[in-house]
Amino acid sequence: MPAITADQVKTLRDKTGAGMMECKAALTESNGDLEQAVDILRKRGVAQAAKRAGRTTGEGLVGVRLSPDAKIGAIAEINCESDFVARTEDFQALLSDILNATLTASPSTDPTSLIAPDSPIGQKVAATIAKLGENMAISRVNRLNGKGIIGSYLHMGGKIGVLVDLAGVPADKEQSEEVTTLLKELAMHIAAASPSYATRDAVPADVLAREKDVYRAQVEASGKPANVIEKIVDGKLGSFYAQVVLPEQPSVRDPKVTVAQMLEASSKSVGAPLSVPQFLRFKVGQTD
Fold first, then answer.
1. Which segments in the chain show pLDDT lower than 50?
2. Rounded to 10 degrees, what is the CA torsion of 72, 151, 241, 260?
3. Full domain range(s) for residue 141
């Protein structure tokens, strides 16, 4: 059995909030497998969180940009060593170049190919490093080809960026104040609530199976009949959906109203069913 290190214990503790001894015991039981140790702690009721925030890895900025017709959106994260450099004109100009290249590329172009070391953008990164004397890297870039109208939002001066696609908007309502306001509300909600999926159907089967396994293990010791246990598991799964699926989350602005209810109200107002088929959310240093 591999020896459990202090770093492993610290990593598990950071992810779960459980005590050091509990983390060490779980890691020992899982032979050092971090994700399995997380499940062990959750099954024991020590760690309850179904989602865990990613670890911040450095300074930098997230940028977003929309095409003139708001049908395409670009989002990118570029990192550096200090917040001071992140605020310089050269660094922000580099981020702007990345967004422009992503936005104007052919829809069939893989956005990651635009930031390869030998690409024009890659060469600009090298030149900016040489000028500013600080290491930097483009950690990720993506493009949202909208099925409807795309909205965007930057939070905390570029520490969090969001693109959100609103489908079903009638052509004569695309520029309306109501649709503009709804897009802003949705993007701000995504920035604050950090949903993982746009719909229930988007949740991977293995993620659901894992959650059910954890919930079932939590209640099996109660001695309740199997059918009762399954109802409890289903109830807990509903709470899980409310944490990670955008339409089922309580609105950040009004927790008594879900995002689905927000969309329903706006759908009646514009005279067409509205939905959010996709979104992108980047936070500096966060990868999951």
1. 48-57
2. -120
3. 59-198+260-283
